[in-house]
Design a protein that fits this description.
With about 500 residues, the chain is an all-alpha fold. It has 23 helices and no strands.
């Protein structure tokens, strides 16, 4: 679909002189406003086109970048995505200029959001344009994708590229972190290890401002206002006095009055309200975040607001648990009913909040794991299993996910699959001691059920070995003694 507002500046730019489009935030805003309206009608493909067109005129605008990816996620989840992206959208970013290349890289990545190489390419384009905030945001996602690559050689190549681009963006600590992650993929690379030491020295010098003799530091040198400096110093303190908290909140309120639609200002005010934490502050922070979400369609503000509601609901559960513990015998049944009802409400709230997060961040495997856990608690095992299966590809959480997936299979009586999954968790990376015990215990349970179902003495004997090992390590672990007795009886009956 092409209409007059969408007219793209091609290679000749707006002035026809062969340059990139001029910076025009006002023109960009019109595209962004139109994009939000179109996105609300669920015409996600056209909305994506509008977001890209707006960014062409204000390439430094950060909230629209996030909004574009949220829109793309909705497009991928819609039936329209089966036909692929339309020619008009591709054509709109087909020019030879650096801005076109950047926008094209965003489009290509948005259509395959789990592809680490496409994320890295987008980061490279952002670095060429010196869009520091955008490049850093893209780089963080690219780092997570690359770090989860199963092929160590491929992961190393991507992480080195990410490190280079973080360096180009002046994000030296992130550059070091990426290079260190690359070295973990190939610890034998001595040249890379030496390079990391050089990078770390650069990061230290940059952080302290030692590369600018006689100056206070690269960050502080741009601060001329003493009051602003004090505000930043106050904000950096981990432990703040009541006066400091009030001063920071007053400054945030004043800034919000002047710029109610500036997203960093919205986020800062919500943070300061929650930091003070008076009874009305939490509700005010919720309203501030929801207003920010309504104005920008940037989902993270909706997420902040959801966190507040989850925290409030969790407190109600804790209060009723405390009330139940101290209730007279005649009131315990009534309080228990109240607690059960509150737990149901809390679980439903969490489930809906994480469902929305997965919908808006479809490539975030950690979110999918969290939603899967909520489905599991609610007894929706069939719904939890596909989420766990997707989340297991994230190497950082794979052991925990496999443990949850095995339990879900067990709940639906897929004992063979449960056994296989728990064994996969044990055979993977080294487990923390507590998780190792839990996985082995869960494998024991699955083996017992597998042995019963198939009259398989081998499975029962394997469970017996596990039970013996757990009892040797921690004699009072759960009901391990009772489980050992059960297994011995099963073995005796199979002789």
């Amino acid at each position: 679909m092409a209409i007059s507002i969408f007219k793209k500046s091609g290679p000749s730019g707006e002035d026809g002189n062969g340059g990139e489009p001029s910076h025009n935030p006002e023109k960009a805003r019109k595209f962004f406003d139109h994009a939000r309206t179109v996105q609300d009608t669920e015409n996600y493909e056209y909305a994506m086109q509008l977001w890209l067109s707006g960014m062409r005129w204000d390439v430094q605008a950060m909230p629209p970048l996030e909004a574009f990816f949220n829109c793309a996620a909705n497009f991928l989840n819609s039936p329209a995505s089966r036909k692929g992206i339309g020619k008009d959208v591709v054509k709109s970013v087909s020019g030879p200029g650096e801005v076109d290349k950047y926008l094209r890289s965003l489009l290509e990545w948005s259509l395959k959001p789990t592809e680490a190489a496409l994320a890295v390419r987008a980061m490279e384009s952002a670095a060429k344009l010196k869009t520091i905030e955008q490049g850093t945001w893209i780089g963080r996602v690219a780092f997570a994708r690359a770090n989860a690559e199963k092929n160590p050689r491929r992961a190393k190549e991507l992480l080195i590229k990410i490190s280079e681009q973080f360096g180009a963006l002046g994000q030296f600590e992130a550059s070091v972190q990426s290079a260190e992650a690359a070295l973990k993929q190939d610890p034998s690379d001595g040249e890379l290890a030496a390079h990391i030491r050089s990078l770390a020295a650069t990061a230290t010098m940059n952080k302290g401002g030692y590369d600018k003799p006689g100056q206070e530091g690269a960050f502080r040198q741009n601060i001329r206002d003493a009051a602003k400096q004090r505000e930043l110093d106050d904000a950096d303190r981990i432990s703040k006095t009541d006066d400091t908290v009030e001063r920071l909140l007053s400054a945030a309120e004043a800034e919000y009055i002047k710029r109610p639609h500036d997203l960093p200002t919205v986020e800062n005010l919500g943070k300061r309200l929650l930091e003070r934490g008076k009874p009305a502050d939490e509700e005010r922070a919720y309203q501030v975040y929801m207003s920010g979400y309504a104005a920008s369609n940037v989902f993270r503000f909706r997420q902040f607001a959801g966190d507040i509601r989850i925290r409030q609901a969790r407190r109600k559960v804790a209060e009723l648990e405390k009330m139940l513990a101290g209730a007279p015998a005649g009131q315990k049944e009534m309080v228990q009913r109240m607690l059960d009802h509150q737990n149901e409400d809390f679980n439903a709230l969490e489930m809906e909040e994480f469902r929305l997060r997965v919908e808006n961040y479809p490539t975030d495997l950690g979110m999918k794991f969290e939603l899967g856990k909520r489905y599991f608690v609610a007894g929706r095992f069939d719904d939890s299993i596909p989420l766990f299966q997707e989340a297991q590809t994230d190497a950082k959480i794979r052991p925990q996910v496999l443990n949850a997936l095995g339990q879900a299979f067990h709940k639906i009586h897929y004992y063979d699959e449960a056994v296989q999954t728990f064994k996969g968790a044990i055979e993977g990376r080294e487990l923390a001691p507590e998780l190792s015990l839990e996985v082995r215990y869960n494998l024991l349970l699955a083996l017992v059920e597998q042995g019963k179902a198939h009259k398989d003495a081998h499975a029962i004997r394997e469970a017996d070995k596990l039970a013996s090992g757990i009892a040797t390590q921690q004699f009072n672990y759960k009901d391990i003694r009772a489980r050992r007795d059960e297994i011995k009886k099963l073995l005796a009956g199979m002789v």
